[in-house]
Amino acid sequence: MTHFDLAIIGSGSGNSLITPDWDGKRVAVIDGGTFGGTCLNVGCIPTKMFVYPAQLAAAVTDGARLGVDAPLAGVRWRDIRDRIFTRIDAISEGGRRYRAEELDNVTLYSEYVRFTSPHSLVTATGEKITADQIVVAAGSRPVLPDTPGMDLPQVHTSDTVMRVDELPRRVLIIGGGYIAAEFGFVFAAFGTEVTVAVRSGAMLRSLDETVSERFTAEAAKQWNLQLDTTVDSLKENADGSVHVVLSGPAGTQELDVDLVLAATGRVPNTDRLDVAAAGFDTRKDGRLAVDGYGRVLSSGAPVPGVWALGDVSSDYQLKHVANHEARVVSHNLVHPDDLRKADHRFVPAAVFSSPQIASVGMTEEEACTDTEARGVELALAVQEYGSTAYGWAMEDSTGFVKLLAEKESGRLLGAHIMGHEASMLIQPLIQAMEFGLDAATMARGQYWIHPALTEVVENALLSLKTTEKPGRNRL
User: Fold this and answer.
1) Residue 475 has pLDDT above 60, yes or no
2) What does residue 433 show for φ and ψ, rounded to 5 degrees?
3) Which of 233, 228, 238, 239 is nearest to 260 (CA)?
4) Residues 331, 344, 416, 450: which is the catalytic one?
5) Is 344 an active-site residue?
6) 3-class DSSP state for residue 451?
7) Is the pLDDT of residue 465 over 90?
8) What is the pTM of this model?
9) Tens digits of residue pLDDT in 201-210
10) Cα angle at 114 between 99 and 106, to 5 degrees?
């Protein structure tokens, strides 16, 4: 049995917990997957490295409506793939080597592990580990639907689809969330025929209803979008393609594709850790239950010296949230008398599809419920990209900014943007919400560059029918 001062399960955001505070102390990092975790290897970073060239390809073909005739000569899938993973794999290997070989106080276990008690672990090869402090940062993984044929080699998840050898000619994507939206855009921009099968009547249903409705309409223009549709079966054809049977409003449909991407959600990796043996509480969806400080709970009470962060415990499957929680836990590990809470009040998110989407705060439905419960009035504004000078330059007919605020105070409750560079346009709104800047002060308390696209945010703020006055002397 080997004892450590700190044991970290997971090498994603958990890897950042090894600060100088642990110099001279014994630390274990345990991860049976690829070093660096989901975001680096199979998530946010490589997917966005595919999205950027997809944007370039889409822009070439989109130029014709603005008078620019520049046909797309082709897409070199292997070159794109290899550029991405040559870099990603080197970073992963460098991180692994640093932890395994260059830090005398750190021991890396490249295998899976399970709990035997709150402070005891056993690895897949049977090695027993104990630790004064344990941080569970084991992440999540994709799930496959229970459909006949899901075990075919042509079926992929987001973990594997980016490494295929050839750009498929025809793709079926199962799911209507952000993974489906992003990969639908990438494959379609590269010239693949894309079919998206969604069980519900809209894509991105977890977002604001206006965003979901408008994005679904745009998706239907780009892909063969099949709503209210289930995949009944997959079967391999003699030529290696996949025969798909769908059921939807029009009855049974059949089609052949070359690749299937199952984008039907992710599950926390708690089931691989045997957390029941340690007596830890879990949520209905399997996530570890934690308090606001990141402490794992058992019978509703915090377990001394056991913490969790990221997808394995968080409400948000977002890297920036996992990083924030890692900073909180990192502090709390070494400052037990000065615990800090994670701040999840204004968590932003983006979908890097076409059009791009970004959001923070409440949806309209949530804001209506909230303001009604508190007896205050809601102010709402929707500003189209096409109402600004830069929107004219793009001849934009799809982008918009939707803002929700308290009418009297002008306090922003939610912001939702769909369109060009939405993930960047939303940042000043996140800042305003975080630091309590009211809509009128934000709109008139600073300069907005003309004719930058940020004017659509300025105009949305001015369109909010609030009664508060700007907090600074600006006209």
Assistant:
1) no
2) -70, -40
3) 233
4) 450
5) no
6) coil
7) no
8) 0.96
9) 999 999 999 9
10) 15
